[in-house]
Description:
Number of strands: 0
Distance between the termini: 47 Å
Number of helices: 8
Strand content: under 5%
Shape: globular
Amino acid sequence: xxxxxxxxxxxxxxxxxxxxxxxxxxxxxxxxxxxxxxxxxxxxxxxxxxxxxxxxxxxxxxxxxxxxxxxxxxxxxxxxxxxxxxxxxxxxxxxxxxxxxxxxxxxxxxxxxxxxxxxxxxxxxxxxxxxxxxxxxxxxxxxxxxxxxxxxxxxxxxxxxxxxxxxxxxxxxxxxxxxxxxxxxxxxxxxxxx
Length: 194
């Protein structure tokens, strides 16, 4: 397994300064870019691809935590994935929004004329409003998870082994929040032209 932290000269830590990460990425990719090589090879192309993958993983908190836990030999398994306690209240709300949006989209697809679609406009606006409100809740929870990640980072520096369980729980929180955010983006996209 490639250590993406080492590849971009970053500490193996839950929290990274994204500006420093971006600067390191740009510096390394400028040197490793195939166009900058006098004799490009498959190895230099692979190195450039690894740098890009490293940056994509380390800039995303969920993927960074998964990589960090994998390097520690404690990668979270999908089978162990449960809804974190701080997200229990939001889980049924997300399900209800998805269900309401899917039913509405079915009605929209079944309409045959502009008048029928215009009669659904109040429902569309209501689902769009509900989606926007849930998105705010997700953003608030994401911000709180980032604060928690920074707090764990300080403890990680002292004793990483004691932080594994908290990092795993935080990884699952980011996984759910990311998935739900993507679902809401899809709903907003499908309802936007209507």
